[in-house]
Amino acid sequence: MFKKFAAEALGLSDIGIIVSPKDYDKVDADDYLFHEDHEKIYFLIKSKKDEYCFTNLALIHVDGESAISAKRTIKRYDYAHYAINGVTIETAGTIDLDIELKFTIGEKLFSIDVRKDFLEQLKDIYKALHTIGKLQRKDEIGRSHALSAASVLGSMFKINNGADVTTVAAQYRSLIEELNDAVLERHTRRDFSTVFEKYIHA
Asked: How many other CB atoms are there within 10 angstroms of residue 108's CB atom?
């Protein structure tokens, strides 16, 4: 605890703040958005060396080596490919200076310290991330059911005595196209704008 106080007094801590939407165009992460695909920032946490940018399509992490270095690594986690789990907030004690947002995206664990006076805003991103995780799990179940159905239907198109090969092949191609549509489109959500718009109160 003493080290945390000393670090804060010396300006060396990496406790983040939540950036206002009017300042989104001033952050590094804005340069790495896919504006062409209508990507938009909905929530952004900035510390001395890192930025955690939550867009409708992905988490963009501007990863800094240190507060005094200009070197940054840009890491992108698209929600369509990285599942969100284990979203928690650790609130501050009486003498703590920060609160903590924790979650896993894919295999990566994030633990982000934020100034405790931003607790109300942090509750918003907690709700949004928790909901995205639930929707991702729902999509995963949908994909699993689609694959199971394809396996059953595929067995129906086995060539039997007297079956027309051309007809069976055409039916099988149609089945594969339907499967691809189910797995890649209907059960793989990419844009979570509606979730952020529901829970984020700028």
From this structure: 12
The tens digit of pLDDT for each residue in 75-121 reads: 999 999 999 999 999 987 766 779 999 999 999 999 999 999 999 99
Whether this prediction's pTM lies above 0.85 is answered by no
Provide the H-helix boundaries in 11-100: none
What does each C-alpha distance from 79 to 31, 42, 137, 154 come to in angstroms?
Answer: 19, 14, 12, 30
Q: How many whole angstroms separate alpha carbon 55 and alpha carbon 20?
A: 14
Q: How many CB atoms lie within 10 A of CB 174?
A: 11
**Which of 178, 78, 83, 196 shows the shortest CA–CA distance to 135?**
83
Helix (H, G, I), strand (E, B) or coil at 167: helix
Question: Do you know the residue count of the chain?
Answer: 202
Report yes or no: 135 and 195 within 8 Å, Cβ to Cβ: yes
